[in-house]
Amino acid sequence: MSSGFPIPVSVLTGFLGAGKTTLLNRLLRDPALADTAVIINEFGEVAIDHLLVEQASDGIIQLSDGCLCCTVRGELVDTLADLVDRLQTGRIARLARVVIETTGLADPAPVLQSIMAHPALVQAFRLDGVITLVDAVNANATLDAHVEAVKQVAVADRIVLTKADLVTDPRDVETLRARLRQINPGAELLEAGDKRTDVAALFDCGLYNPATKSAEVQRWLGEEAAHDHHHGDHDHDDHGHDHDSDHRHDSRVRSYSLVHDGPVPFSAIEMFLDLLRSAHGERLLRMKGVIELLEDPARPLVVHGVQKILHPPARLPSWPDGQRGTRLVLITLDMPEDYVRRLFAAFTNRPSIDTPDRAALENNPLAIAGR
Ligand SMILES: Nc1nc2c(ncn2[C@@H]2O[C@H](COP(=O)(O)OP(=O)(O)OP(=O)(O)O)[C@@H](O)[C@H]2O)c(=O)[nH]1
Questions:
Q1: How many angstroms is it from 103 CA to the middle of ligand 1?
Q2: Residue range 100-117: average pLDDT?
Q3: What band does 113 get if pLDDT is binned at 50, 70 and 90?
């Protein structure tokens, strides 16, 4: 494949009517998004019709500013594969970026998985990040009612609050921000109405940016460290209202970091990640981390995963903050944290009491109870 690959893919998600199309229309006016293909993952209306100048017969639409727009007909992977084919056969001159707008209340994980798990697409595309829009007026009710909405927040790299202008009491926005922080401490929290919520703020949020050979590691690790906690089962908001934990899907979401000072053999980390994903894939909403490998401790290995899918690990040329060590950040849904911690300890050779050591685990991975 030529040097333009892998092409960054951003997923724009958010509840029904959260303001995805509105934000996308604003962003597409920025020349920085030239040569971007927008894939709208739904049938029916073309949402950005006022930008259209020409509709190609095959469903891919060339916009006046050079962007491409298509609605998914059939499988998303087919649409992405078709874009690669067009690029390689010269039917598209350039393709710098893909933005996938998902439908309202969808679980974004299958979209991410369809890209990251596809053997051919993974060569052509890399997941840049998930941008989740949250409607400040309706978010609390939606988060209470739909676990998909909580997942959308949990997998985000950027959370954009929309319609804050319609909320009369600013304290309600602050309460919502705290709730979103609780679900996903690592994501940057922005407001749609803020001029700074631009292309630069929303894109290129991968852990590893091949263009600059740098990582966002420092920022999200710092955030996570500051927020490392269990999410309480019994929260109350600023107005003193207790939430019924049965309706609080976000109490099922936890984020925590796993830290190991010192290098870890590649085989150990590989086995740890394999076991975690095979045993708990659906519950592992998001994982990001840097790993100090025994085999090459000077160059951190960056891992990035969504559910069972692990993005191909990238190498950084050096440690971004000078601090070595293995640090993984997990966002999980209904996953026994204790099991994960003990598994990690076993593979990093720090068995806790009653936990079999790594050699025993490699022979019998089920030896850790509590799954
Ligand atoms: N006041 C206000 N209205 C907004 C804001 N963002 C979006 N809207 C309005 O909310 C409505 C829905 O916005 P869309 O951009 O269509 O939302 P969407 O997420 O694309 O909607 P679906 O694709 O149907 O899920 C529109 O009427 C927008 O004008 C905002 O920040 N403030």
A1: 13
A2: 73
A3: confident
Among residues 282, 249, 272, 252, the alpha carbon closest in space to that of 328 is found at: 272
Looking at per-residue confidence, does 130 or 117 come out higher?
Answer: 130
Angle at 275 between CA 271 and CA 276, to 5 degrees: 115
Nearest CA to ligand 1 atom 26: 19
The answer to whether the CB of 17 is under 6 A from ligand 1 is yes
pLDDT above 70 for 183? yes
- Ligand 1 pocket member 323 (CB < 6 A): no
Q: Fold for 230-367, please state it.
A: Hypothetical Protein Yjia; Chain: A;domain 2 (3.30.1220)
Confirm whether 7-206 and 230-367 share one CATH topology: no
Terminal Cα distance for the chain, rounded: 42
**Which ligand 1 atom sits nearest the alpha carbon of residue 14?**
19
For residue 199, the CA-to-ligand 1 centroid distance in Å is 18
Read off the pLDDT band of 107 (50, 70, 90).
confident
**pLDDT tops 50 at residue 63:** no
Report the C-alpha gap between 173 and 222 in whole angstroms.
Answer: 24
CA gap 238, 215 in Å, rounded: 36
CB 190 within 8 A of CB 196: yes
The token duo for 222 is 């710092």
DSSP 8-state secondary structure symbol assigned to residue 248:
-
Whether 166 lines ligand 1, by a CB cut-off of 6 Å, is yes
Is there an atom of ligand 1 within 6 Å of 105 CB?
Answer: no
Q: Which of 15, 22, 49 to mutate to test the pocket of ligand 1 (most atoms within 8 A of CB)?
A: 22
User: For 7-206, CATH number?
Assistant: 3.40.50.300
Question: What's phi and psi for 130, nearest 5 deg?
Answer: -110, 125
Q: Which whole number is the average pLDDT over 287-298?
A: 90
Task: Tell me the domain boundaries of the chain.
Answer: 7-206, 230-367
**pLDDT tens-digit map of 205-257:** 766 555 555 556 555 555 554 454 444 333 444 443 444 444 467 778 888 88
Which numbered atom of ligand 1 lies nearest the CA of 24? 15
What ipTM score was computed for the predicted complex, to two decimals?
0.97
Ligand 1 lined by 22 (C-beta under 6 Å): yes
